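Regression report. Comparing outputs from two consecutive submissions.

Submission 1:
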Amino acid sequence: MNIAIVGTGYVGLVTGACFAEIGVDVTCVDVDASKIGKLKQGIIPIYEPGLKELVLRNKDAGRLHFTTDLCTCLDSVQVIFSAVGTPPDEDGSADLKYVLQVARTIGRNMTDYKLVVTKSTVPVGTARKVRAAIQEELDRRGLSLDFDVASNPEFLKEGTAVADFMSPDRVVVGVESERSRELMTRLYKPFVMQNFRVIFMDIPSAEMTKYAANSMLATRISFMNDIANLCELVGADVNMVRAGIGSDTRIGRKFLYAGCGYGGSCFPKDVKALIKTAEQNGYTMRVLQAVEDVNERQKGILFDKFMSAMGDNVGGATVALWGLSFKPETDDMREAPALVLIAKLLAVGCKVRVYDPVAMDECRRRIGDSVYYATDHYDALLDADALMLVTEWKTFRMPAWPVVKRTMRRPLIIDGRNIYDARELGEAGFEYHCIGK
């Protein structure tokens, strides 16, 4: 089967490489000529474990191709996946201009049946708009051609995206015809053979499933952060609470970790978009509004703890940050708590020294040279009055504490992910603060 993937971001490139890995002939399309040029040279524009090897192997095998022009491959493909960006508008709703541009391009140039699959995270009703855009272009051309639209939302986690695609919990597919169902069944047959679940449903339900899934996960995070903040006030330990409630099979243990807030390309955007979708339909998502409010407040909690520990002695203080990306195993800093924290520290006159295993270039692209970019995590500590652990990279799990203490000016540790042992650090002479106890 021949398919096209429009958009070569996290979703598009991972999807294309993984489909190529199981034998599908894939053409990845992007309007960014620089990005396509680099991909043709084997240069991967994003950091994702295992992706580079997958792209190179399938490119060399002739199953994975790259182009800036969808029209060059449109006649040869049966299925077109739209994996372009859906950035949030100023009002929080998802901006569908790129999704609809792809639809119009297909409508202007298709000459036979196509199945157009929305892979991007889009609000309920987007497939209907895609269908209308394609039909409008066909009507302008005076053509009557059959086509189908479908929804196939992604559930990839940055840092484990390749493994998630190749071994998914489930594949959700929204279809409106038997022909489109048969095509998607053929495409996902290798996964079905490995007993992975492909769940077919109507298109609006598939579109809603993606938003509902991310919003539920975001809700669990904000709920635990709210509980953690209350634990501090009443003298409880959120880690004990998490163990107690997580053992309940109705609740489970995942996404119950307190911290300094969630970020990334999905949770913040999708929560906002679902709130906006509800507003547009005359409904208020009260729980999700609270989820968003708690998360925005939580992004400043490390700064609040720092100010409380330092008192009035913050002007000219040096603060070390370990971790910049919104989560480990990615260089993605979209909506990252580190950005909020850096802005707050700089605003009160602090000097900020940062280190992240992979996100240094992305941070420099976003905020320039307003901070010091350390050569390693120990360099970040030089004469620091405080160390803030923002992202729980493995390299930060077991530092040489005697070296840390000698390097810092004041042995103040503020742990935004609760990965260190309070007793161990107390015995080593550190002042230690974490989340929820």
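Submission 2:
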Amino acid sequence: MVAAGYGMGAIVTTFPVASALAGKGLETTLWQFGLLFAVIGFFASQGLRSPHGARVPVHPATHAPAKAVPDVPTRQMLRTPLFRLLFAMMTMMSTSGLMVTSPMATFAKDFGVAGVTVLGMAARPLALTLDRFTNGLTRPLFGWVSDRWGRENTMCFAFALEGVAMALWLLTRENAVLFVLLSGVVFLGWGEIFSLYPSS
């Protein structure tokens, strides 16, 4: 849910950040929003509490906290083929998403939609806002789906969804409406890695 909150919370800052970048420049914008987020984070953290009635299970013989999963040393984990496979998959999937996130302004300019409006809003900030929404939504959504379909089936579907969306995005790149909508679908298929991989 924290990951979902990140995506949803980023929605409200997309247009203000874009406006500040255009008017004040990068350094001033980073300082202003960095300090703002630090203050909000500090005050929000004051409300964190342990779940009501939560207790750590204790082993009756040793009076030590019981462990549901054996503790595996890092060296042993790194030698596990399954870990290596998961790590390689996670790296490839996270890289594909970051390659879309970072150069979004360049994409919009190259695709010819940088100055186009969709529903009365500039296409790029609107796409970024939708991306934040789907990036936050996908984490609990695909977590729920994976509990019913299984991790492997869910990953296969999500990865295919992202791949198809990216291909269609490139094929229809000059259409501003599809630029916005398909960027959201790309992030819907990408953000789930942050809930599926840690639980694997």
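Expected: both submissions complete independently.
Actual: both completed, but the second showed a warning that disappeared on reload.
Relevant detail on submission 2: The chain has one domain: 2-43+80-199.
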